[in-house]
Amino acid sequence: MTRTTQQLLADRARLMGPNVSTFYEEPVHFVRGEGVWLWDSEGRKYLDCYNNVPHVGHCNPRVVEAICRQAGTLNTHTRYLHDGILDYIERLTATMDPSLDTAILTCTGSEANDIALRMAEAVTGKRGIIATDATYHGNTSLVSQLSKSNIPTVGFGLGQYFRFVDAPDSYRHPNPDGAIFAAHVAEQIERLIEDGTGFAALVVCPYFLNEGFPDIPDGWLKPIADVVRKAGGLLICDEVQSGFGRTGTHLWAHEKMGVVPDIMVLGKPMANGHPVGGVVANRDIVAAFRKGYRYFNTFGGNPVSCAAAMAVLEEIEAQDLQANAKRVGDHARKRMTTLAAKYDIIGDVRGSGLIFGAELVKEHTNKTPASNMTDRVINAMRSRGIIHSKLGRHKNTLKIRPPMPFSIENADLLFDTLDDVLSEVTR
Ligand code: PMP
Q1: How far away, in angstroms, is 137 Cα from ligand 1 center?
Q2: Which of 163, 177, 282, 346 shows its CA 20 to 30 Å from the CA of 303?
Q3: From the CB of 137, is ligand 1 less than 6 Å away?
């Protein structure tokens, strides 16, 4: 059955319930993808500057072949012995600090964060979790409490265990000081201890990606990790968005920020769209969790998922995609800086590798977010065949996070179009 856009919208509301969100004033109906390109149902081609899940490109042949081969051979679960999961974890952990040597595979980033928090409880015997104020770590009862801006009105009373600190904002508070952030974390740790909750962990995206990827110098998280460990807590780095070479300079953003987490959480790009997430930690931490919770995940770590995830690692290496992210990201940042000199609406240019963007403001002196204008830009780009979005505390930061094979030529098309759109919307 092929529906029109109007029929699709009506049937979504009828069959999926109300309030299922879509992107854009005119939602898009994609029917095919290849590399960095997407096609809609009318055959129109779009440059994908948004999707990080198809990390090595939409319908990447190596991943498709790996999935098909394994799906045509065997798919079961981790209660049977299989090489696939072991080969994958061995190859994945070989890219990390030797202390991160053991993994649990899940189907989503939410499940992986949920496990990470429970690991921290199992190890410390405490439940107090500190997170940043404008982040997102997932949708389970436990981790949905971490989205301070959108805390659910229900949630089994779990909100009592969470405390928040402001994420760094390099635009409004230039040169954010890691020591000040560490002091805020220390303050919240004190409160958790005083009220009897106790401190279990700090959870952060090491590149603060959902918060608008502030410009912070490499090594920035070091004093924060020291405070956390001195208090007997664990550092959880949620690398669901920042990992697998996205920042261009490092495979893992925690390396860029100068720390080794106790627990690392993975998801989204891990298997190029096949649902795979994971938690990586030291064997003792994993053992404490497994002892505390008799954990089993029916689909997590199944042979097909592992084949897909392995193909992603192979492709990143074979195509040198981290180096590509650095090269194209550097070019993109230069082009965005050139646009910033031309258009007053661009208040700040940020990013590293293939996560980059600009904060749009009404005027430079008071830095008031131009949130409505940001929506206009995104919709105008979509109507010109360029797909991207927005994020950050004020939802006024252009979020550009394409599949990793994104080229200089793709970046030039994006910025030539953005130039046209900005001249139109600011006219
Ligand atoms: N952590 C971060 C940083 C995320 O951005 C997301 C998803 N946007 C999640 C966790 C949750 O992942 P999933 O949707 O796979 O559960």
Answers
A1: 5
A2: 282
A3: yes
Cβ neighbours around 289 below 10 Å, total: 22
- Between the CA of 203 and the centroid of ligand 1 the distance, in Å, is 13
Which residues pair with residue 129 across a beta bridge?
A: 162, 201
Instruction: List pLDDT tens digits, range 239-287.
Output: 999 999 999 999 999 999 999 999 999 999 999 999 999 999 999 999 9
Distances (CA, A) of 304 to 58, 83, 159, 275: 18, 12, 36, 10
Q: Any idea what the Cα angle at residue 265 is, between residues 357 and 126, rounded to 5°?
A: 120
Burial status of residue 246 (CB atoms within 10 A of its CB: 0-12, 13-18, 19 or more): buried
Question: Can you tell me the distance from the alpha carbon of 415 to that of 421, in angstroms, rounded to the nearest whole number?
Answer: 10
CA-closest residue to ligand 1 atom 7 = 138
> Kindly report the CA angle at 400 between 375 and 224, in degrees rounded to 5?
110
Nearest Cα to Cα of residue 89 among 269, 238, 309, 312: 309
pLDDT value at residue 155? 72
Please report, for the chain, the start and end positions of each structural domain, with discontinuous segments joined by +.
Answer: 5-56+320-425, 61-318
CATH architecture of 61-318: 3-Layer(aba) Sandwich (3.40)
Say whether domain 5-56+320-425 belongs to CATH 3.90.1150.10. yes
At a CB cut-off of 8 Å and minimum separation 6, what does 404 contact? Answer: 55, 56, 57, 244, 245, 246, 316, 319, 321, 322, 324, 325, 354
Q: Describe the strand order of the beta sheet including 30-34 as a list of residue ranges.
A: 30-34, 37-40, 45-48, 386-387
The 3-state DSSP class for residue 344 equals coil
Q: What is the mean pLDDT of the chain?
A: 96
**Amino acid, res. 75:** N
> Does the predicted model carry a pTM greater than 0.90?
yes
Q: Report yes or no: 355 and 220 within 8 Å, Cβ to Cβ.
A: no
Residue of 240, 244, 254, 270 to test ligand 1 pocket, by largest number of atoms within 8 Å of CB = 240
